[in-house]
Structures are given as C-alpha cells and as structure tokens.
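Troubleshooting log. The previous structure file for this entry was overwritten by mistake, so regenerating from the original sequence record. Sequence copied from the archived sheet and checked twice against the printout by T.R.
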Amino acid sequence: MPEGHTIHAAARDQMRDLGGAPVAVTSPQGRSADTAAELDGLVLRRIDAHGKHLLYRFAPATEGRVRKADQRTLHVHLGLFGKFFRQASPPRDPTGQKRLRMVGEAWTIDLSGATICELLPPPVEAKLLARLGPDPLRRDGDPALFLAALSRRKISIAEALMDQSVVAGIGNVYRAEALHAERMHPHRAANSLSEDEGLALWVRMQAQLKQGLGDGMIVTIPDAPRTSAARRRIPRAKGKCVYKRVRCYTCGGPVSSEPLAGRTLWWCPHDQPV
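Regenerated output below.
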C-alpha cells in the first residue's frame, strides 16, 4: 500500500497537470460512472492529501464565489492495488480495468484498482477526517495529537504507528525505518514513551516522509546516493536500514522479522534492544 509521501506526491503532481481548468471525467470500467458524470466538465480547484487519502475539490468554472452546494469532493484511497497512470492528452483508448479517467488539456490521469473512488458529502468527509490522526507532511499536522494518542494506547509502538487514527500516512516501511533510526524496540508499549521520545519519533517520521517526497522513493540510509542514475543502481531493499534486509545496515547484525497484525515487522535486536 502506498505510504504518505506517495499520496502527497500524487496530489502535488496531479494538481500541476490538471488543476485550474475544466477536466473531462469518465469511468471506462463503468464502476464509477455516476461519480464521473457529476464531475465531468468541472474545474479541479485543489487536491488535499491527508495520510493515505486524496480529496479532489471540483467546482464549476466561474469568476465569482463558488457556492458550497455546487462544489464536489472526490475521495480516493488506493488501498493495496490502486495505481495512477499518466499520459499526454489526447489519451489512447483505455485498456484494462480503468475505474476513472481525468483528461486535461495537456495530461490525462487514469486510476485503476483503488479501494475507494467516490463522491464525499461534507458530513461524511468531516467524519473521515475526525478519525484520522495528524499527518506529519501537512502544515496542520500537530505532534501534540500524536503524543496524546500514544499515551492512550497500551499496544506496542509498532502496532500504534500502523493505526491511522494515531498518525496518518505511516506504513510498514516507515514504521520499521523510523523505529530503527530512534533505536526503539517495536514491542515497547506505546504509552511508555516519554514526551521527548514521542516527539523525537514524530520528527524522525516527518523528516523521512519529506525525504521520500523529495526523492520519489523511500531511501533511509543516510549516505545512500540520491541522484536519479545512482538510485537506479540501488536494489530496492538496499535503500533501507532494516526493512526486508537480512543484515542491519548500521551494525551488520541479523535483522529479525515476524508477522504482526497482518503485516511483517522488521527490526534489529542489536540497535533496538528491549
């Protein structure tokens, strides 16, 4: 499943490609035909990313103030299999199961495999945002809310970081890499962290997400080359310190792994002692 930096990159890039102009919206697959019909021809005003959720703000073309009743919000959650495909406009005929197609003057964005692709009424959006934790990549991401959520949870910190109501946008890779960078054992109780430890973990996740947003990929090894040519030579697992590694990058010791809540947890027993 894409992590927060990927979602924020999609919002940034698609707004650059489609924003500020009318967008032709269709559902080649037919599953989101009603949604596409409501959005077709509207102007894409803004795209908000919150954790792993994308909120596309559409409204009619007008020079005056847009009435709330005329605004539409498209909610997309990629889930495990969702993907975006970008091509120049006019686009080729769609192939495969393309759930939604957004065609702008210069670029076309296709969406397939998404878990959620639907219009979101304001009351439902409010409930969605209320159950999401703070997003470290957003300007309004509040670490105090993260610390408060940790203090209420007796579960392990590894489980807590995957709870989107605790912190939005963290997935399996950033969980492993942030905990390793902070030398924190993944089975430690979330509510046992001091305020300083919790804040340091927030700052670490924020820095790693920002780096991933800038790089276009997750590379948490501090001295790894980050030019485009060099990154292509780095095997995927080698860009991380413990995630999917046999040996820890920092100490060279064996990396431990185990299933936890349906995902695989990775950590270094030497660098992250009990």
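The first strand starts at residue 24 and ends at 26. Archived copy saved in two places this time.
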